[in-house]
Amino acid sequence: MKVIGVGLGLIGGSMLLSLRRFYPEAEFLGVDNNENHLKEAINLNIIDKSAQDNDFVQADLAIVSIPVDISEGILNEILNKVNGNCLVIDMGSTKRSLCESLAIHPKRHQFLAAHPIAGTEFSGPKAAFSSLFDEKTMILCEIEKTDPKLQTLALECFQKMKMNIRFMNPSAHDVHMAYVSHLSHISSFMLGKSVIDKEDDERNIFDLAGSGFESTVRLAKSNPKTWVPIFKQNKTFVVEALSKYISNLEMFKNQLETEDFDSLFSTLTKTNKLKEILDGIK
Amino acid sequence: MKVIGVGLGLIGGSMLLSLRRFYPEAEFLGVDNNENHLKEAINLNIIDKSAQDNDFVQADLAIVSIPVDISEGILNEILNKVNGNCLVIDMGSTKRSLCESLAIHPKRHQFLAAHPIAGTEFSGPKAAFSSLFDEKTMILCEIEKTDPKLQTLALECFQKMKMNIRFMNPSAHDVHMAYVSHLSHISSFMLGKSVIDKEDDERNIFDLAGSGFESTVRLAKSNPKTWVPIFKQNKTFVVEALSKYISNLEMFKNQLETEDFDSLFSTLTKTNKLKEILDGIK
């Protein structure tokens, strides 16, 4: 088997490292528009060597993990280049616009829209590790549009990683992600900004911030090159989620200003049910 | 040495367990208005037995770790009861109002306003553990108002835990905490609420939420009985911090709606400097 990774950062690099465990005979090639990342990926044994343009026609599997604002164009090109048996999987965080743009591609049946729910606040090949996806959720969109034989190959790969597969339409995917992922990132980024704005003397943040602050702003370390394109692609649902979040914060502020502590208490108590929900995630 | 813990939850329980390591000969007594917590604290070896009213006159050290809306009254009573050599330390999360209310107490010099920057989202004696405060920051307010001999006892205790001591006036403490702690909790609670409001079918939260969401809403599991009084006591500064946070979120939403992605990118990149700040915390 010949596998080509397009984009060798946290997600792409981890997916190749993970596949290497189960397909040790396979050849792993890669491309990345960042020359340093390409060299790092070779040094870190993520890929055997860089892929040339003519490698695509021989590939059995292409794993595309690149910022979502450029993935439509690049996936279109890759589908044009590959042979008729190659499976092309996109790993991006938004799905609606991408699936629409590839809907009438003649090789649509060789494409699979996937989104692994796994990641860290770090980026680049050095952040990649082989167990990132083990036992995590993998969302697959419009799987019925993918050729059955290629569906089998994809499921085989993800089942080897013991991933929990879920099937979903691209719009449902995007709206849910706006709430459970994209909004968390905005909340964290703006919390970080509010504290930096206030605390000119950074020493105060160092000393006074406990693990609670650290946990809440962890995502504010995320790479803007990844996240601005996600917010852009999922603008409609992100604006909806953000508006509701702001309304809830306004409600909290109003309850505090008017000293309606009973309502405040009741709101926080209801939110505590996240305990059980989150314990279910583990 | 005779130590009395008033409030035997996460903070009080952990402080007593921590002190037991360094003062194994000392006697540890305790009170808690929750009968079950009192029993648990005895079973968990946090205290040797419950403290009676007449134990206070023999105590050398009282550690008060109770919700901040009742601490003013109770600290006033405890100071009235203790002998002239006993040190009374409050561990609460707000300091301005408390220090004002005790300013003219005849035993003000036996009181120390402290705030350890450590905790978890859990509460009660079962959540307590002896190393919670090791190498964490301890903020002490108005230490110059505490008797020098009693200052020495307090510093000895906290230095044994290898805590980093910082001195601060009560108002500065409250304003900084509004930003680096209280705001994180509100952000997390309201994020949790926004997602619960949207996701009627909880299964979607289970499956789609990754570690990012989990980290960002961790604090939404916190106990409202602890946190509503903190928001109430620190209302002025919390409303200020929350207003600035909402403004930043509105700015983000506006930049997204008007597709001003350059500004969005620049905002997030500046916030990334939290990386270095947070790495400094560790």
Topology record:
Two copies of one chain form a homodimer.
Chain A (H helix, E strand, L loop, with lengths): L1 E5 L3 H13 L4 E5 L3 H9 L5 E2 L10 E4 L3 H14 L5 E4 L5 H7 L8 E7 L19 E5 L6 H13 L3 E5 L1 H29 L3 H7 L2 H6 L7 H10 L1 H23 L3 H11 L2 H8 L1
Parallel strand pairs in A: 1-2, 1-4, 2-3, 4-5, 5-6, 7-8
Antiparallel strand pairs in A: 6-7
Helix pairs in contact in A: 3-4, 6-10
Strand content of chain A is 5-15%
Quaternary state of the chains: homodimer
Might you state the CATH topology name of the largest domain in chain A?
Rossmann fold
| Distinct helical segment count of chain A | 12
Could you estimate the helical fraction of the residues of chain A in percent? Answer: 40-55%
Question: How many domains would you count in the coordinates of chain A?
Answer: 2
Could you name the CATH class of the largest domain in chain A?
Alpha Beta
Notes on the protein architecture:
2 copies of one chain form a homodimer. Chain A is of the alpha/beta class and 282 residues long. The first copy, chain A, has 2 domains: 2-168, Rossmann fold (3-Layer(aba) Sandwich), CATH 3.40.50.720; 173-281, 6-phosphogluconate dehydrogenase C-terminal like domain (6-phosphogluconate dehydrogenase C-terminal fold). Chain A is built from 12 helices and 8 strands. Chain A has an 8-stranded mixed sheet with strand order 3-2-1-4-5-6-7-8, sandwiched between helices. In chain A, helix 3 (68-81) packs parallel to helix 4 (96-102) and helix 6 packs across helix 10. Chains A and B meet through helix 6, helix 7, helix 8, helix 9 and helix 10 of A and helix 6, helix 7, helix 8, helix 9 and helix 10 of B.
